[in-house]
Design brief:
About 65% of the residues lie in helices and about 0% in strands. The longest helix has about 40 residues. The chain starts with a helix and ends in a 14-residue tail after the last helix.
């Protein structure tokens, strides 16, 4: 009788683990979709403003310590 109870408890635990993993995978998928939507919503920088800058701008970094 003790063996049957242990086996039954193990099966219930395995089923619970499987459900938990399915919920976790679904939550990760939803988070990934939300992140992709946020990335897609980032506006592209205007290209015309870069054309008005001198060509040497941004070639060097001036630092002081």
């Amino acid at each position: 009788m003790n063996v049957n109870m242990n086996t039954s408890a193990a099966l219930v635990q395995n089923a619970g683990d499987a459900v938990g993993m399915a919920v976790l995978k679904k939550a990760i998928d939803i988070e990934a979709q939300s992140a992709m939507a946020l990335i897609a919503a980032i506006p592209q920088p205007p290209q015309q403003s870069a054309a008005n800058l001198p060509p040497n701008l941004g070639q060097n970094i001036n630092t002081t310590a």
